Amino acid sequence: MLQSLAGSSCVRLVERHRSAWCFAFLVLGYLLYLVFGAVVFSSVELPYEDLLRQELRKLKRRFLEEHECLSEQQLEQFLGRVLEASNYGVSVLSNASGNWNWDFTSALFFASTVLSTTGYGHTVPLSDGGKAFCIIYSVIGIPFTLLFLTAVVQRVTIHVTRRPILYFHVRWGFSKQVVAIVHAVLLGFVTVSCFFFIPAAVFSILEDDWNFLESFYFCFISLSTIGLGDYVPGEGYNQKFRELYKIGITCYLLLGLIAMLVVLETFCELHELKKFRKMFYVKKDKDEDHVHIIEHDQLSFSSIADQAAGPKEDRKQNEPFVGPQSSVHPDASAGN
């Protein structure tokens, strides 16, 4: 009897604090994932770093042996200055002297990477005035970019996602949830093909030193806004039509980022993912449900961590991709 009472009380305790337990497991899982990534990267990359260090030591020692008039201190001072300039995107190599980092097209490419928070790091401001302007420009430009992307993605999602789903639901009678899942998978496949595989093939042709894997790696690192900067297109000394190429890359990155956000929003609106996300949210009090800080129909960056569970959203869970602001009647949408 006592055991059954203790078991039932434990069950009630777990159910009462279910969100807290789920959140604790989420934090633990994220930390373990970080550790897992560190272990894998360290085990894979550390041997290559050791080989590179040994190779550089041998080259340095051989160079000093062949040039006895040059001291090791003088060589290190020269190399230190060269590496410092390289960090600012200025190379001492003769085959790279023809490319300027701050002509208009390169500056336009730099501005796009700053506002999209990609930040390759291959080109950085040299002067104090440039650094100060970069801070002010980013403070204003990044929120402006978020607003711009949110507005664009909201309009694209209506025509690319919501209306097709309503059309198949109303005209053909398919379940909205099934249509939403199939549509999300197809949209993801088309986006990956158009903004990853095809551009990777193009980059592997236009860039002399890139293979397909490196080109695909650049596309993913760029459109996910990671921006490591180890691969940057259009930096070759013999690059033809470099200005036009840089403008094309800027347009590709902007369109690709919009496409990625549309796909992200489409998947985040799936009923199954909404239900899964709500496991980690703190339940709202009834009074908080009347305070609408963020509207349901907003998109892109805030859609992952938006709506905590509320009665208004619970009534709409079975109607994916139908926003509360939409004034279009389903019949009218189907007709479109």
Automatic annotation (TrEMBL):
<dbReference type="GO" id="GO:0030322">
    <property type="term" value="P:stabilization of membrane potential"/>
</dbReference>
<dbReference type="InterPro" id="IPR003092">
    <property type="entry name" value="2pore_dom_K_chnl_TASK"/>
</dbReference>
<feature type="domain" description="Potassium channel">
    <location>
        <begin position="95"/>
        <end position="156"/>
    </location>
</feature>
<dbReference type="InterPro" id="IPR001779">
    <property type="entry name" value="2pore_dom_K_chnl_TWIK1"/>
</dbReference>
<feature type="transmembrane region" description="Helical">
    <location>
        <begin position="215"/>
        <end position="232"/>
    </location>
</feature>
<keyword id="KW-0967">Endosome</keyword>
<feature type="transmembrane region" description="Helical">
    <location>
        <begin position="244"/>
        <end position="264"/>
    </location>
</feature>
<keyword id="KW-1015">Disulfide bond</keyword>
<keyword id="KW-0325">Glycoprotein</keyword>
<keyword id="KW-0832">Ubl conjugation</keyword>
<keyword id="KW-0968">Cytoplasmic vesicle</keyword>
<feature type="region of interest" description="Disordered">
    <location>
        <begin position="307"/>
        <end position="336"/>
    </location>
</feature>
<protein>
    <recommendedName>
        <fullName>Potassium channel subfamily K member</fullName>
    </recommendedName>
</protein>
<keyword id="KW-0630">Potassium</keyword>
<dbReference type="GO" id="GO:0030425">
    <property type="term" value="C:dendrite"/>
</dbReference>
<feature type="transmembrane region" description="Helical">
    <location>
        <begin position="21"/>
        <end position="44"/>
    </location>
</feature>
<dbReference type="GO" id="GO:0016324">
    <property type="term" value="C:apical plasma membrane"/>
</dbReference>
<keyword id="KW-0966">Cell projection</keyword>
<comment type="subunit">
    <text>Homodimer; disulfide-linked. Heterodimer with KCNK2; disulfide-linked. In astrocytes, forms mostly heterodimeric potassium channels with KCNK2, with only a minor proportion of functional channels containing homodimeric KCNK1. Interacts with KCNK3 and KCNK9, forming functional heterodimeric channels. Interacts with GNG4. Identified in a complex with PSD and ARF6; interacts only with PSD that is bound to ARF6. Interacts with UBE2I.</text>
</comment>
<keyword id="KW-1133">Transmembrane helix</keyword>
<feature type="domain" description="Potassium channel">
    <location>
        <begin position="192"/>
        <end position="268"/>
    </location>
</feature>
<dbReference type="InterPro" id="IPR003280">
    <property type="entry name" value="2pore_dom_K_chnl"/>
</dbReference>
<dbReference type="GO" id="GO:0097060">
    <property type="term" value="C:synaptic membrane"/>
</dbReference>
<dbReference type="Pfam" id="PF07885">
    <property type="entry name" value="Ion_trans_2"/>
</dbReference>
<feature type="transmembrane region" description="Helical">
    <location>
        <begin position="178"/>
        <end position="203"/>
    </location>
</feature>
<dbReference type="GO" id="GO:0055037">
    <property type="term" value="C:recycling endosome"/>
</dbReference>
<keyword id="KW-0407">Ion channel</keyword>
<keyword id="KW-0812">Transmembrane</keyword>
<keyword id="KW-0813">Transport</keyword>
<keyword id="KW-1003">Cell membrane</keyword>
<comment type="similarity">
    <text>Belongs to the two pore domain potassium channel (TC 1.A.1.8) family.</text>
</comment>
<keyword id="KW-0406">Ion transport</keyword>
<keyword id="KW-0770">Synapse</keyword>
<feature type="glycosylation site" description="N-linked (GlcNAc...) asparagine">
    <location>
        <position position="95"/>
    </location>
</feature>
<dbReference type="GO" id="GO:0043204">
    <property type="term" value="C:perikaryon"/>
</dbReference>
<keyword id="KW-0631">Potassium channel</keyword>
<feature type="transmembrane region" description="Helical">
    <location>
        <begin position="135"/>
        <end position="157"/>
    </location>
</feature>
<keyword id="KW-0633">Potassium transport</keyword>
<dbReference type="InterPro" id="IPR013099">
    <property type="entry name" value="K_chnl_dom"/>
</dbReference>
<keyword id="KW-0472">Membrane</keyword>
<dbReference type="GO" id="GO:0015271">
    <property type="term" value="F:outward rectifier potassium channel activity"/>
</dbReference>
<keyword id="KW-1017">Isopeptide bond</keyword>
